[in-house]
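== Sequence and structure of one protein ==
=== Format: two labelled lines per protein ===
==== Data for this protein ====
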Amino acid sequence: MDVYLETERLTLRRFGETDVDLLTALDSDPEVMRFLTGQPTPRREIENLVLPEILKVYDEHPELGTFAAEQKVDGAFIGWFGMQPTAEPKTVGVGYRLNRIAWGKGYATEGTRALIDKAFAELGMERVVADTMAVNHRSRAVMRRSGLRFARLYHEHFDDPLPGTEFGEVEYAVDRRAWEAGRRA
């Protein structure tokens, strides 16, 4: 197993070619996909686009990517966490997607905090960002609990918008100075 990082309750590892079933099951839940695409992701799309893109990021950015999240206690797959490159130098984007059975247990905050800490302490990043739909209040709460702060509201055009798109997207962020100040407090 190619471990990326560990938290108190989670192990984050690289995905491999054999993980298609895990990703397909995760993206098959309409509630998991509610604020993303609004519908399940077909297996063929996971096989031909999603997983190859995940593996490509590992090759192009070895310290970044999307990582399978497993419970330490039993090895159960609960979803993924990601730390992705952005167009801005020394800035990464963080995110997660968890199975519904993992919701409300603090995993999203735990994993996101660990990624933010790694970005600053180990990878030398200067800024970490995350975004979601403005109406996705649960993810916004995770962002706040993880140490990210509201940065902006913006609007994007979508050919097939999801309900709530009209309220816009939000970006949350933290820079190195604020992260360091929070660690000293």
